[in-house]
Amino acid sequence: MNVDKVLDAKGLSCPMPIVKTKVAISELEEGQVLEVHTTDKGARNDIPAWAKSGGHELLKHEEENDVLKFWIRKR
């Protein structure tokens, strides 16, 4: 998967991963992909809900060594 920007939001608590994701995706062009890394367990629900409400496409998500990873295509 082609990733245009990676956001490291590890160690941040709610709502900062969402705030940082919103800022990072605003810097991308439509169709580009943002990869988000966070350790905030609330992001498991928050980021997919935020992406859907913003009209963005959640391409994939996974957990690796207590780090949640999300790939979001800007719409």
TrEMBL record:
UniProt-listed Gene3D superfamilies: TusA-like domain (3.30.110.40)
Domain of life from the UniProt record: Bacteria
UniProt domain UPF0033: residue ranges: 7-31
A Pfam family of this chain: TusA
InterPro entries: TusA-like, TusA-like_sf
Homology family: Belongs to the sulfur carrier protein TusA family.
Protein name listed in UniProt: UPF0033 domain-containing protein
